[in-house]
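Worked Example 4.2. Consider the chain below.
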Amino acid sequence: MPSRTTGARVYLSLIGLLLALAGGVFSWLMWRSFDRAREIDHWPVVPCAILESRVEDRRENPDWPESMPQEFRFSVLYQYDWNDETHESRRYRLRGASWKSKPDRAAALVERYPRGSVAECRVNPEVPSEAVLEGESRGPGYSLWFPLLFLVGGLGIMVGAWRRE
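Applying the procedure from the previous section yields the following structure tokens:
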């Protein structure tokens, strides 16, 4: 079996580098998201008063006919006290409530956090004006293995390209 040419080795190295780079970037992004979710779980919990709770809707293009689907999300405003100061927040989660094509999820959250009720919210002790009603998903941490496969595979391709046969 003939040995690889230098051009083939460089080509394989570039492919491996691109795979490793993509895997590394996505691994870092997913780890950062997982770490942020863990951090929020350790924020202090305080009572908060729900001042406003509703289903918000939007239409991507106002010129579209009424039959075109809209998007819906949960909108909330709550008040809480931290270190003898009163703060307000509109964040359901750190990233906010996502837009959905059906109002069911948003309506369920309105029922869970009705106007005038008292709930628990998590407050960032370093930035007390930042609070959330619910933490973030830890799902990215449990899926971290997938982009790591690309990182390891890309590194393997680069090593294999220069290995003697």
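The helical segments are 6-41, 104-112, 139-142, 145-161. The chain has two domains: 6-39+143-161, 44-123. Compare this with Example 4.1 before moving on.
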